[in-house]
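Good morning C.,

I know you're traveling, so I'll keep this short. The sequence:
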Amino acid sequence: MDIQIKLWWDKMSYDFSSVEKIVIAPQIVVYRNIFKHSKEIIDLLQDSRDTSFFNNWRAWYEQGFRRDADPDLLETINTSGNSNLILEKEYITEINDCMKFIRKDYLNEFEQHGIWPSFIKSWNDLKEKDRNYWIDFFRYDVKVQSVIKSSDLTMDYHVDEIPVPGEKKNYRHVATVNFYLNNEYDGGQICVYDSISNNIYMYKPMPGDAVIMPSTEPFYHGVKPFTKADRYFLRAFIDAEVHNEVEWISKYEVITGKDSLTDVATEEDYVKKDLQIIQIKSDSNLIEVK
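The tokens, ready to paste straight into the viewer:
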């Protein structure tokens, strides 16, 4: 396997000169040391404040807790005289700068040589349209995730763009970007499965790393169990606009489980029923990336 490593930078409001880019496999990329304020944003996330760019924490299935940052609030909340709000806005802006950098670099590299979903209608719009990103913050609880799947994962292999019957969307996820914020835990490796090559790529992220992969098949991702400490990360998506599209049908290999797929009404229902989970072939090749 040929893993490409290089330094990469661009002229933006944020300095990317120290970013190390690792191409693990086609369309699976790590941007090392891209986000500089992991500890600081964890400190802000741990507190609850009456006025914040972050929504309240809420339970996130069997993993822990989640809260969001709405990009529309960046222009509506007055930060004057509020040091916490000033810092929140600074770090959210930093994440958005990182996302714009990743989007441009990643799509330019793989547009012509990647496997992409049919719902992408305009590559120029996908790459060039300036937008802020909805950011999901996660605290995966070391105690909550104690139930390990038979696959030896705490989160089984899945995709983030899910075909829900009868559903229509204005946006569909093209690529998933996870930013990792701490490493006090043991384990917790991100695993990406490519169902075409039948390879599993396993990587232990460090604070400041961003890992990007397609949100759709044939790429699936899961998480190894972890111990000792909670696991913090944030997620954003590169989305394609698909206003008023008809239902997107895809040939997912899913475990239908207890209920019929046609009974699923929302993405939340879909996730709760584990219908996005796939069974990985026992002869898959595991490649650990250092």
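Safe travels,
E.
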